[in-house]
Structure formats: C-alpha cells, structure tokens
Specification:
- The protein has helices at residues 3-22, 59-66, 88-100, 102-120, 131-140, 210-227; strands at residues 27-38, 43-54, 75-76, 83-84, 145-152, 155-165, 170-172, 185-189, 194-198, 244-251, 254-258, 265-267, 270-277, 286-290.
- By secondary structure, it is α+β, with helices and mostly antiparallel strands.
- The protein has one domain.
- The strands form three sheets. It has a seven-stranded mixed sheet, with helices on one face. Strands 7-8-9-14-11 form a five-stranded antiparallel sheet, with no helix packed on it. Strands 3-4 form a two-stranded antiparallel sheet.
- A hairpin with a 2-residue loop joins strand 5 (145-152) and strand 6 (155-165).
- The chain is elongated and about 85 Å long.
C-alpha cells in the first residue's frame, strides 16, 4: 500500500470517527470482566470491571478536529472562463496559501468540535485540560461507580456494581448528560417474567456497535500511517484499547435461548453462560431467560 493510499485511508477513518462522535457513538469497552446474575425472585446483580474508552477525550479526536487534505481550487481560462488544468506553479501557490491558513482552520475546527462534544458529554468540554478529572467526578457521584481512575488518552479503569429488583429495563452505561446510544449491556423485561439480555457493546463486528468495528480498522491504519510518517499534524498515534474480556450470565431461571459457543454449564450458583469477547467477536451476546416462579 502506498503512502498516499494509507494517508487517505487514515483521513477517511478520522472522518468516520468524528461522525460517530457527533452521533453519540463514542464509548467502547477495552479489557474487562462483566457479570450479570439473574434470580427467580426478580433480583439481579450486574458488575463491570475494567477499561472504558471515551473517544472524545482521546488525542485521536483532537487530531480529527484538525485533520484535512489539501484540495486545490479550480483554474479557469482567462478568455473563455472555462475550467482548465492548473499549472504546477498555480498549485504550489494555492498550497502555500492553504498551509499558511492551516492554524486558523484548525483552531476553528477544534472550537466547533468542543462545543458539539460538550453538548453530548454533560457539559464537559473535551478540550479543557481538566476534562478527564471532571468526568471522573461526574461518574463517581453516580450510584454504582465504585472506582473510576483516569489512565490517560480517553481510557478509564472502572468498577461498576449494582444490585436490585428487576422492576424495569436496565442499561449500562448510563451517564448523566450523555446520550444513551451506545449501550454495552441491556436487560429488557417482557411479559410472563421473560428477560431478554443483549450486549451490543461486547461485539466488534456488528452494526449495533459501529465504534468497536471502527477501532479495529483504525489500529491497522494508524500503524501504516506511523510507518509512512504520515501522522496528522506530525503527532504520535494513540494506543487504542483492545476489546478483550469475558461476559458471564448466571441464573437460576430457565434459559430458553442463547448464542454462546459452548452452551451453558450448571454451577452451585445456577446455570452459567459465558462469552469470551475479542476483536473477532462477530455476534453480540444475547440470551432469553424465563424467571417465572
């Protein structure tokens, strides 16, 4: 693959990332362990321990705000005013002007992105040096977030644990002021004590989780861009967290349907379903469980 191709591919990936950012799809798991316990008395316990990646707080997002390619203006014939091919000198002059104005464009793009992202991040401005600390404070004041530690570049190490009664649907994560468009796990209650569990955030290659699929592609593109020394703004590429973990459901109800590779196993705590999650995981974990007494 040529330098020009890899650079263009990386620019396209940046645009895709920003599109996801601006539609709210910008949170993804990293390395994690998650467990859901469902009991016949309508009690449940959910835990998530490990990494969560916020794309909007990463250096990659800041690169994307300023990333652009030079596109020359059309040149015209002075007599007929018809478009013609630009000369080498004309292209060089246009590029010189474009490069001279680059800092102004970059500053404007970052300001616009910060305003848009702030509206979706509970008022947190991602360009604020204290943005990560503010997110830690926001999560820490919400019930269930027992540990929130900033690992840098948009990655946070967390422990979330909550127990209660299944009186309504449940979704994780839910963050104050954030859109709820990128769930890791959903518990959906049906009639007759049926419970549907979906985990769209724990699959890397499905339409319901576009950001994880994008992250896998970006890892390869960023490597090519780095080797070709074509990194945006000459900066270093961030290390994207890998999607890697285990999702377990334990229940004393009746498992009517599941898509685990190895079925289920009987344990002292109940029937156990286990999904091993990796960048190759194509299908989101799902199960239908009957909790009728």
């Amino acid at each position: 693959m040529s330098v020009q191709t890899s650079t263009r591919g990386f620019a396209i990936a940046l645009i895709a990332a920003l599109s996801l950012l601006l539609t709210g799809c910008f949170i993804t798991p990293g390395k994690f362990t998650s467990e859901l316990v469902l009991l016949e008395d309508d009690r449940f316990t959910f835990t998530y321990e490990g990494e969560i990646f916020f794309l909007g707080l990463s250096s990659f997002a800041q690169m994307g705000a300023a990333s652009e390619e030079f596109e020359p203006d059309e040149c015209y014939d002075e007599d007929s005013f018809e478009t013609r091919e630009c000369t080498v000198a004309e292209l060089a002059e246009q590029r010189e002007v474009w490069e001279m104005n680059a800092p102004v464009r970059a500053a404007k793009a970052q300001e616009e992105q910060a305003q848009q992202m702030g509206a979706m991040m509970g008022g947190i401005d991602p360009s604020d040096p204290e943005a990560s600390a503010k997110l830690v404070a926001l999560l820490s004041r919400q019930k269930g977030w027992e540990r929130v530690e900033d690992k840098g570049d948009g990655v946070f190490d967390v422990r979330y644990a909550v127990s209660g009664e299944l009186g309504h649907d449940f979704m994780f994560p839910v963050i104050e002021g954030f859109p709820t468009t990128n769930p890791f796990v959903q518990i959906i209650l049906r009639e007759a004590n049926l419970v549907r569990v979906n985990a769209p955030g724990f699959a890397a290659q499905n339409e319901s989780n576009p950001i994880s699929a994008m992250m896998g592609g970006l890892a390869g593109l960023s490597g090519m861009a780095a080797m070709a020394d074509q990194r945006p703004n000459g900066g270093e590429m961030p290390d994207f967290p890998a999607l890697e973990g285990t999702f377990t459901i334990i229940t004393n109800g009746h498992v009517r349907a599941k898509n685990t590779d190895d079925g289920s196993a009987s344990t002292e705590r109940g029937e156990e379903l286990v999904w091993e999650i990796s960048p190759r995981t194509a299908s989101a974990p799902t199960a239908l469980i009957d909790l009728a007494r």
